[in-house]
Amino acid sequence: MLIWVSLLSLLFLKPVTLSQVLQPLPPSLQDEVNSTVPEIIAKYHYSVEVHHVITEDGYILSLHRILPSRKPINSSVLVMHGIFASSADWIITGPSHGLGYILSNEGYDVWLGNARGNRYSRNHTSLDPKSKEFWDFSFHEIGVYDLPATIDYILGKIQQEEIFYIGHSQGTAAFYVMCSLKPEYNAKIKAQFSMAPIAFVNHMFSPIMHFLAAFNVVFENVAYWMDLNELLPKNGVVNILGEKLCGAYSIGEYLCDNALFAIAGFNLDHLNLTLLPLILTHVPAGSSTKQVLHFSQEINSGHFRQYDYGYWRNFKLYGQLSPPDYDLSKITVPIYTFSSNSDWISSPEDVATLSKQLKSSKGDFFVADGSFTHIDYMYGMDAPKVLYNRILSLMTRY
User: In the CATH scheme, what architecture does the domain 2-395 have?
Assistant: First the structure.
């Protein structure tokens, strides 16, 4: 039933034409279209470093570090993006709005992560990024391999025992995976701040995710036999569905041609439309097909659990016919969650279910603006006022 309600909701997308929205970028921002994250950060006179982390299974990840812009220097913080995204999320809106800059201005040592497979982490010690084997991962492997390697690398560099962690969407799911399967990492995190957290997705509203969930097995088999290992920005299944479901000749069609906006939804009132052409040059940054398949499985199962390979392979890998749930009781890090009623991906009902299972939950916060969407955690014009300032205040407790 929910899939039909969510599909019908697309009929009410605000009918704004492209000519009303797509304005030329200001000359001062035009160079950022083809710039990397470190180049953009340096442009605004912040001290930036690029680091490379090799995971246990051979993926080479890029870390972008923004050094504190004032003293006294506070703790270090790892900020982790969601699906289809990259470290660009936290700086693309500029020094007055980007979370990376805001944290640096408050004296934090900021590390912006990049998960395997995105624009900045498409290398491996032995696998070719064009191979099927390279893309055989979901948020599970990001939690089991990427985050532990990244955290250990940071702690080794700063010679400290703990850091803060801020995650958005998939960046929270991977964190829960890590702390449940590798509970020793709980001791390495001072506190975790979950923006639009993802674990249980029974009430996820995204029309495209429900469509993929309804035909999950078909999509998985087609992707396997057609070698669709990566959800490409322009010719992937998600983008085709976005174009068809959102309609033509409107800003809805334009944004739904983008995988992230197609899945997560958007609210034009919260987007800085001047920056929109710039944002869309950095998003999507790359994702495996298996990442989306894993989330669609969670919609169908109602569980937060490992990847479902089918009865026989499950039994071979897990010793049981169905995949095991992630044991959230093993998470002991102080966790603060942030949700919004207009989020197509992370619903308040699912966040409440998650919080009940997190013994170390310290607070569940609703974003003051009820129309705040999944995208607005990164690009919303009011994000500093309604969200980032609260996180900064909570960080001072530690």
Answer: 3-Layer(aba) Sandwich (3.40)
